[in-house]
Amino acid sequence: MSFESIKEYVTAHGQDHLIKYWPELSENEREKLSGEIRKLDLADTNEMFQRAINLTKVILEKLDDDLKPIPQAHYESVPGLSEAKIEEYENIGFEEISAGKVGVLLLAGGQATRLGFGHPKGMYDVGLPSRKTLFQIQAERILRVQQMAEERTGKEGKITWYIMTSEHTMAPTADFFKSHDYFGLSVENIVFFEQGRLPCFDFNGKIFLDEKNHLSSAPDGNGGIYRALKTQGVLNDIVKRGVKHLHAHSVDNILIKVADPVFIGYCKSKNADCAAKVVQKSSPSEPVGVVCRVNGYYKVVEYSELTDEAAERRNPDGRLTFSAGNICNHYFSSEFLLKICDYESKLKLHVAKKKIPYVDENGVRRTPSEPNGIKIEKFIFDVFEFAENFICLEVARDVEFSALKNADSAKKDCPSTAREDLLRLHRKYIREAGGIIDDNIDVEISPLLSYGGENLKDLVENEVFTITPFHLKSMQESVSNGVNGIH
């Protein structure tokens, strides 16, 4: 692409400032800049900026009349289900796993900057007795649930793990898995792919230069997964492997039941194309989005978008009317993903005003102290409204949700709360299996031994746990590390 054609292209779309420093650039720098410009469809980019701005102008009117909770026919709660019903769903899920029809979509693009950890968040170790990272814990849950499915059905099936990284986390994530021998999983069943990026704009729609030869851009949000699935061949891989069910979740929930057979079985039995796991909101003011219906469509309404009256409204039984807290834990049928990825351009755009470093009109790179522009993101849950059969499964927070977002100084959603939530759950599992353990004893149960409290009775019944911290291992871990001593 010659300079003249680049100039004509950017000028036609009002972005000619992008080549202001062309005369100062070396041949390599010019090549880099023209490559970045060529990658952008500037007509689309300008239209996207306009759409995003128009959406923010139409400030969501807080019309409580249009807001309805999820209808009972589309909502079940695991704590309220009979053991027989849970087993029924679980068996369906195990059958699908054994038939190789289950995949996991892991949202692992985040860098743990708020944790003061300069690596992908999945590599974080919250300080468990085993020192296992989030990636290892989740990999071992996949290994265990595959094993449980085989024991239940007599057939061996593999789960495909699709891991969405970002530009900056792709290489370190892939290297980390390789250096840990893929945590015992088959490398051919792990697929890494990269989420896209969108340009950063000033308030007038001009794309910022981050450097004289480099456009400013930011990750396109977890809703960028739909575009990435299509552009990086992942959808084709899903079809080729015959995967029918995808369990999507973020990497930072230490309690995540990866490829949960109960969730898969529930969704298959209801013929759902899209679903969400939710937890009950802890209080009206808890700052989480709620899954509900707006004008007849399923959506996640952010906490800030709810009126106080709606947030505090209660049913006759005392439960919050809008209690279905969104935890970024979703189900998609492969058919739904194939359909949705074809019109992901219709997805809502979310605008965040940010302090964006930029090259000013004098060629000096500035870091502003006040928001000077916008980043545009898409959210994974904005496809709910396109579902034909959307359902919800409520789960117990203490069993399935503990997020890792902040440094310990925040005292909330941080490494120490994640660690404590997991160890508290494991004490509960030990007690349910007949073991004796005080609240001050920390025992971690390996995911290779138990996925959700099963397989413990023979090991812990009537045993008194006194050593802390302690790692209760599976047989294969114990063989390589000596006996699995219980005291």
Number of contiguous helices: 15
Strand order of the largest sheet: 2-20-12-15-11-3-4-5
Tell me the β content.
Answer: 15-25%
Principal-axes geometry comes out as globular
Contiguous low-pLDDT stretches (5 residues minimum) are: 482-487
The class by helix and strand makeup works out as alpha/beta
Give the number of DSSP strands: 24
Distance between the termini: 72 Å
Could you please describe the fold and organization of this structure?
The strands form eight sheets. An eight-stranded mixed β-sheet has the order 2-20-12-15-11-3-4-5, sandwiched between helices. Strands 1-13-14 form a three-stranded antiparallel β-sheet, with no helix packed on it. Helix content is 32%, strand content 20%. Helix 4 packs across helix 5 and helix 4 (83-98) packs across helix 9 (261-269). It has helices spanning 3-12, 27-39, 42-57, 83-98, 134-153, 170-179, 225-231, 234-241, 261-269, 308-312, 334-340, 397-400, 415-432, 457-460, 475-481; strands spanning 67-68, 75-77, 102-107, 160-165, 190-194, 197-199, 201-202, 209-211, 214-215, 217-219, 245-250, 274-280, 290-294, 297-301, 324-333, 350-354, 358-359, 365-366, 373-377, 390-394, 436-437, 443-445, 464-465, 470-472. The N and C termini lie far apart (72 Å). By secondary structure, the chain is an alpha/beta fold. The radius of gyration is 24 Å and the shape is globular.
